[in-house]
Amino acid sequence: MARTLRISNALHARLQAAARARGFDSVEQLLDVWQSEEVELRRREEAVHQIDALREHLFTVYGEMADSTALVCEDRAR
Question: If DSSP codes are grouped into helix, strand and coil, which group holds residue 56?
Answer without folding.
Answer: helix
